[in-house]
Amino acid sequence: MPTLILFSALGCGLVSGIFFAFSTFIMQGLEKLAPEQGIAAMQSINRLAITPLFMTALFATAALCVALIVWAALAWDRPQARWIAPAGALYLIGSIGVTIAANVPRNEALDKLDPAATSSAARWSTYVSEWLAFNHVRTVSALIAAGLLTYALTLED
């Protein structure tokens, strides 16, 4: 179990770091550009984000969290279980769930915009503020999950 917990914690931390970069400087950098440039850049980023390496980090971590939640449910009497179950749930709901329910639909809508269209500038501004709010949730969720899993590693079994 320690190895599974460790890899889950590392995955949560890695994903949190990616989201953190978007929350702290990438989106602000794109927002400083002219709207058509920001839109085009984010469209490119969104298309390039769907890579095997990033998808593996995101969804393999989710699969590990599911396995840990199942283990925690079956081993609830162990001290680690009470930290592992909420960590896994937090990652699955706060990172994966928010990604699927909030960020991806916004990315898909952004992808349909013509960056040069006059009406796109207002939509870009709305996109950035909404997307960032949900990204902050993803960032914090993955970071707390990583922390809880790391703490679970310190507990004696």
Distance between the termini: 10 Å
Largest sheet: none
Give the tally of structural domains: 1
The average pLDDT value, as a whole number, equals 96
User: Number of DSSP strands?
Assistant: 0
Principal-axes geometry comes out as elongated
- SSE run: HHHHH
- Helix/strand structural class: mainly alpha
Helix segment tally:
5
Poorly predicted regions are none
Brief overview:
Helices cover 86% and strands 0% of the residues. It has 157 residues and is an all-alpha fold.
Describe the structure.
With 157 residues, this protein is mainly α. The protein has one domain (2-154). The chain is built from five helices and no strands. It has helices spanning 2-32, 35-49, 52-74, 81-111, 120-154. α1 (2-32) packs across α3 (52-74). It is elongated. The termini are close together. The model has no long low-confidence stretch (mean pLDDT 96).
Task: State the main characteristics.
157 residues; mainly alpha; 5 helices; 0% strand
Topology overview:
Elements: H1 2-32, H2 35-49, H3 52-74, H4 81-111, H5 120-154
Helix pairs in contact: 1-2, 1-3, 1-5, 2-5, 3-4, 4-5
